[in-house]
Amino acid sequence: MPIKRRKFLSLGLGSFATAAVGQYYLTPAQGSLAANEIAPVNSQSNHPPYFRFIAIGDFGTGEPEQYAVAQTMLQQWHSVPFSLALTTGDNIYPNGEIEKIEAVFERPYADLLQNGVKFYASLGNHDVRTNQGADQIAYAGYNMKGRYYTFREQTVQFFALDTNQKCNLSGRMRESSWENQLQWLRTELEKSTAPWKIVFAHHPVYSSGAHGSDDALADALAPLFATYGVQLYVNGHDHNYERTKQINGTTYITSGNGAKLRPVEASSYSAHASAQLGFTAFNVYLDRIVVQAINTDSNVYDEVHILQA
User: Fold this and answer.
1) pTM, whole model, 2 decimals?
2) Following CA atoms 270, 196, 185, 189 in sequence, which dihedral angle do they give, to the nearest 10 degrees?
3) Domains in the chain, ordered, with CATH?
4) What are phi and psi of 39, to 5 degrees?
C-alpha cells in the first residue's frame, strides 16, 4: 500500500536503488548508503550472540496455525535458545477475553514458559475491546508494568507502547492520554544509556500491508526515534512480515504473522515483504543486531544486520 506523497517526501530515503557489494547488499538511507544497515545473503555469525529474543504478533487464536508457529519457536529455542519474547498485540482473539488465556497463550507456549522464556506484551486493537485491556495488563504472564512501560535486558532497552491510545477509533481514549504517553517516551528515551533502543507496539508506522502506514503515528514517533537513536520499531496489526529500508536511522519491522495471514505487496520503502506464518528473531551482538524472519519450515527467509552507528 503506497503512503501519502507528503509522508513519502519526508522519509529521507534518497535513491531506492540497491548497491551490491560482494555477497552483501547495502541499503541506501538519507540519500546515501546506510552506514549501519547491512543485509547479508545467507550469512551467519562466527560467534554466539550476547542474547537472543523473538517477536510474535496477532497470534492469540488457539487455532492450528498458532500452534504451528509455537512449535517452530520451540524448535528454534532448542537450537539457539532465546530468553524473552515480545508480543506485538492481538494477544487474545477476538475481544481480549482473559478467560481464554490458557487456550491462546499458556497451552501453545507451555514448553517455552516452563523453560523460563519471559513474554513481554503490548496491547492490540482486539485486546482493548474488553475492559480496555486492563485484564491483560494485570496478567502476570505478560510481564506488563502498565499500559506502556520500559525494561532493559543487557545492552538493549525496550519500550512498549499502547498505540491504541492514538489509533482507537471508538473515541474511548482521550487525546491527552496519548500526549502523556509521548511525553513519557521522550523522557525515557532521553535518559536511557542503552546502546540499543527498541520500541514495540501494535500499530505500524510504515507498512505495505492491508492497514498500511499511519501518518499520525509517523508524525508523532518518527522524529523521536531519529532524535534519540531508536534503531528498531517492531509492530503487528498487519498479518504479514515486512522490513523497511532504513528510514532516518530506524528500521521498521512488521511481525504480525503469528497465526493469521493477509497478502502483502512490497512498497518503495520495503526491503522485504512476505505473507508467511512465523516469527522474527533478533540476535544481539556488541556491534550489531541480526534480524531474521523465520517461517514454520524453520527457514530464514529474510535477514539483515543492523549495525551500531
Assistant:
1) 0.86
2) -130
3) 34-307 (3.60.21.10)
4) -105, 100
